[in-house]
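Checked the freezer inventory, then went back to the computational side. Two predictions to log before the end of the day. The first one is the construct we discussed on Monday; recording sequence and tokens without edits.
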Amino acid sequence: MTANRPTPRAGVLDIAAYVPGKSSAPGVAKVFKLSSNESPLGPSPKAIEAYREIAGHLQDYPDGAATDLREAIGRAYGLDPSRIVCGAGSDDGDGG
């Protein structure tokens, strides 16, 4: 690595690159990649309705603190919303 770039931990560069599932197969009209969370059933009717309800506000930037979501989770499970952390993925918000 160069002086301007950090050096990865030992072994990181030895990890094989991810190989995505096949997008097509001979004799198959449509391949559903279940490991990529693709569904042959299409979206849930509830998801479609939720989209329709919010479609006029898709340009709005979401609340980064997820206040409404944390309050709803707190109500549903009897928890203090200030002690609930919401993030965008498994490595989001872990501090490093």
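The second is the one RB wanted added to the comparison set:
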Amino acid sequence: MDNKQIAIRKIALTSLFSATAIGLGYALAPIPNVELITATLFLSGYILSWKYGIYSAVITYLVFSIFNPFGFSHPLLLTSQVIGGIAAVIAGNISRKYKNLIIFILSGFLITLFYDVITNIAGYLVFVSEQTLIVYIAGGIVFCLIHIISNIFIFGLILFPLQRLFEKLAI
């Protein structure tokens, strides 16, 4: 394949990763803090590159936010979501070097923790008053734990075997 064909292939795959992440995001939206967007963006960084993966993260969160059934994200919250998505992409790209189950599980944990911290800070700055701070923090911890635990399982039980399959298929 020449460079033009490779670029076209990567653009097509970027679109597919974005569409998959968005579709999975909407499919699991009714289940609080169980999601596959992070895993999909991680995989885009793993398979494509950090550059095309970042395009996928930005497209994913812009579309998901604009057409979100729960309403449009505040710009500060949207920015933190995009940053979290970019972190997933970069971790996926770095994980290519290791191809190890522990690295995938650790990545799922760290990415999700980072994402939850930055989005909770953004949410706090946008939505919370002094009167609701304790409730916001307590609720955030519970949802953060659900998110982290679910992503640990997703990264270990789904993503790790999936990346091995993609490598066999030479995707």
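For RB: The longest helix spans residues 133-168. The helical segments are 3-28, 37-47, 50-66, 75-95, 101-127, 133-168. Let me know if you want it refolded.
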